[in-house]
């Protein structure tokens, strides 16, 4: 009987110390200095009836790369229009918390001190001109839930030059001039159904190449896709016979051993998009061949 009572008491104590929600624990991970920085975020309650909030501005001259998922226990799901526009205080590598679902128009426009941004798991939409003119932004990491990239979203982000960018299957729309004047080298689309784009989505991306799935629908000129930029060869087809098999893997290994590959090889047989041709790429080709992918 005493053992049962002891177990019940322990269970009650353990429940009492569980976090009230998934974001409360993250707040405790901040240092005292970081907590003082977070206090300078100005937030407003969302008008959608939920008990969630939007970051509307950052009121401090202190440089920061912290975007909080909560402020004073209030859950942040949105970054408002122009919230950080032209702020040099937003600097370095930025990681958005999973709670944020929407980034507003011009939210980070002109943040020239920002270098890299990593989106949280729940982000669905990037607003118009969201990162317009972020001239030092050179790396972007998407999640698998993003659906929409707005007009002019990355226009004039010139440090994206020579970047490889993976666009997840979830994407449905990419706006006008979204990647204009970026100099992106390669964009990889993973959805077999082409997202909607405009004829100016990739305006003045002169060196851009686009990789689409081998079996795909909608990636056609009539749907505004710049077919002159779409790579026609199958990924992994090293000998150009429109098949991917053990022969291609052997060619890749030979190129690796002799350190003999061209820029076109990077587009065609760099299977993991790490800008290197090696045995890993040969192994991926063999795996696809064995599984008839």
Give the topology.
Elements: H1 2-16, H2 24-28, H3 32-38, E1 41-45, E2 53-58, E3 64-66, E4 70-71, E5 74-79, E6 90-95, E7 102-103, E8 114-118, E9 125-126, E10 139-141, E11 148-149, E12 164-167, E13 173-174, E14 186-189, E15 209-211, H4 246-257, H5 263-269, H6 279-290
Parallel strand pairs: 2-5, 3-6, 5-7, 6-8, 7-9, 8-10, 9-11, 11-13, 12-14, 14-15
Antiparallel strand pairs: 1-2, 4-5
Can you offer a commentary on this structure?
The protein is of the alpha/beta class and 293 residues long. The chain has 2 domains: 23-232, Leucine-rich repeat, LRR (right-handed beta-alpha superhelix), CATH 3.80.10; 234-293, Type 1 dockerin domain (Orthogonal Bundle), CATH 1.10.1330. Helices cover 20% and strands 19% of the residues. The chain contains 6 helices and 15 strands. It has helices spanning 2-16, 24-28, 32-38, 246-257, 263-269, 279-290, and strands spanning 41-45, 53-58, 64-66, 70-71, 74-79, 90-95, 102-103, 114-118, 125-126, 139-141, 148-149, 164-167, 173-174, 186-189, 209-211. The strands form 3 sheets. Strands 1, 2, 4, 5, 7, 9, 11 and 13 form an 8-stranded mixed β-sheet that branches. A 4-stranded parallel β-sheet has the order 3-6-8-10. A 3-stranded parallel β-sheet has the order 12-14-15, with no helix packed on it. Helix 4 (246-257) runs antiparallel to helix 6 (279-290).
């Amino acid at each position: 009987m005493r053992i049962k009572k002891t177990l019940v008491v322990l269970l009650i104590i353990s429940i009492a110390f569980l976090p009230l929600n998934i974001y409360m624990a993250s707040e405790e991970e901040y240092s005292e200095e970081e907590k003082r920085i977070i206090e300078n975020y100005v937030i407003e309650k969302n008008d959608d009836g939920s008990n969630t909030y939007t970051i509307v501005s950052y009121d401090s001259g202190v440089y920061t790369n912290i975007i909080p998922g909560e402020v004073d226990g209030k859950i942040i799901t949105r970054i408002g229009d122009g919230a950080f526009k032209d702020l040099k205080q937003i600097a370095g590598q930025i990681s958005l918390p999973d709670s944020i679902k929407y980034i507003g128009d011009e939210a980070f426009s002109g943040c020239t001190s920002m270098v890299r941004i990593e989106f949280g798991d729940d982000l669905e939409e990037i607003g118009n001109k969201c990162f317009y003119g972020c001239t030092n932004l050179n790396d972007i990491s998407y999640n698998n839930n993003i659906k929409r990239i707005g007009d002019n979203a990355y226009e004039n982000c010139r440090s994206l030059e020579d970047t490889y960018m993976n666009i997840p299957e979830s994407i449905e729309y990419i706006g006008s001039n979204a990647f204009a004047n970026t100099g992106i080298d390669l964009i990889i689309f993973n959805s077999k159904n082409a997202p909607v784009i405009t004829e100016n989505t990739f305006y003045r991306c002169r060196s851009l190449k686009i990789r689409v799935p081998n079996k795909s629908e909608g990636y056609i000129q009539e749907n505004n896709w710049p077919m002159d930029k779409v790579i026609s060869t199958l990924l992994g087809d090293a000998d150009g016979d429109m098949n991917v098999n053990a022969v291609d893997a052997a060619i890749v290994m030979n190129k690796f051993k002799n350190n003999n590959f061209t820029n076109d090889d990077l587009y065609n047989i760099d299977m993991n998009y790490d800008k290197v041709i090696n045995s890993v790429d040969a192994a991926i080709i063999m795996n696809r061949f064995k599984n008839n992918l």
